[in-house]
Specification:
Two copies of one chain form a homodimer. By secondary structure, the first copy, chain A, is of the alpha/beta class. Helices cover about 45% and strands about 15% of the residues of chain A. The longest helix of chain A has 16 residues.
Chain lengths: ~260, ~260
Amino acid sequence: MPAENIVYFGDTARLPYGSKSPATVTTFVRQIIGYLAPLQPKHVVLACNTATALSLQAIRGEFPHLSISGVIEPGARAAVEAAGSKEQPVIGVIATEATVRSRAYERAIHRRRTQARLLQRPTPLLVPMIEEGRAHDDPLVRLALQQYLLPLVQRGIDVLVLGCTHYPLLADPIARVLGSRVRVIDSAAHCAEDVARRLRTAGLPRGDTEFHGSIRCFVTDDSPRFEQLASRFMGFAVARPTHVTPEELFAQSPGINPVRRAV
Amino acid sequence: MPAENIVYFGDTARLPYGSKSPATVTTFVRQIIGYLAPLQPKHVVLACNTATALSLQAIRGEFPHLSISGVIEPGARAAVEAAGSKEQPVIGVIATEATVRSRAYERAIHRRRTQARLLQRPTPLLVPMIEEGRAHDDPLVRLALQQYLLPLVQRGIDVLVLGCTHYPLLADPIARVLGSRVRVIDSAAHCAEDVARRLRTAGLPRGDTEFHGSIRCFVTDDSPRFEQLASRFMGFAVARPTHVTPEELFAQSPGINPVRRAV
């Protein structure tokens, strides 16, 4: 959707979410959506598996006037499609500790294919390895992927869901460890297709123009780290982000009770 | 100091600090000290290398009535002592990205030994490896330590400072990679000795009793993860922590302007 104008909010002061509780992650997401709501977005994506797993349901209830989706349903749908007609497909999911603990992928997959067998594995070293900028042929990357993935291969997975938006950056070395028999699902790509479909259904896509849409970034920590990582992840330089501290987020979310917790 | 009563505050909702900016870390530390100040602690330790490197100086200025120390000065002092009489000792420091970038160890060591050569190395995979509970003989731990440390050994370090309070949990495999020629400094142990000395100098140590002091824990994220890790790190079960959300921290730090930044 190159014509769309995108606002990206990265909670860099409080990341990662993947080791934290549903209540904490939901509070953080609530503050961010409350901050973005005045921009009247036509759609909001929780473009993070942990945030989706832990808070999507609560956040949808709290912002009923906003259209909000996540990354897990599109990934689960694609995994079931990739499993094809096999009666009892074995589907592996690698994700953060919090996403695994939430069982969100399990619910989303079993709703579509009750007979699927799910093997979930938290893989907490992959995000720091990716952010460290390690090469795909780094022996440490290869060894970590072997340790995490070979037990899943040995137990016969047909499909592996990359259940964290960082993981597609390791798609090549992951495919090498898995071999050609296992289908790999990039939940980020399927999420983008899901958003495009939602916009079309609602008659909301921005008409084709010769001009590309804009990307505006907000971050909660003002550090050169974001621009470095964003440029590496996106493949092009990203404009300097706007800095909003967690305290400003909190102060500018009127009507949101700080002490009550949703989950 | 087994007789002392200890209050431990773990900012589990916003950790890790090691990849974040001085302004953000200083804001978080300020909120925590503001929250603890009414307990009238006889001493406060920033028991985290990143928090010490990025915020100790500012925080001391903002809380002049509190006695506050960190972990870096004790570690730097011990490193210089361990280097002995060598004219140009080579001192290695492994730490978080933020601690390395701050050059806090460099300043603290050069103040004592202007001729020392410093080799600093961010080692961002070690904390997640330790928190994942990997065994000391795990091939991934060994390979990561070889990648991080052998270049320092080859450049002739005499001393290695473990510049993050997690790293002493890997002291054995670190010593195996370094060999017997390199002295290893555990900044956590030297920090405890430094606090004991400060209390004695101020005439404040709690008299010997037959009873052990208490440990009371506060955390910002209410998750079973803290108790699991704390028990593993401490070697005994830790009482259930009190949960204080980041929003409560912020709301209960009156007079602290959320938007101004100290650094």
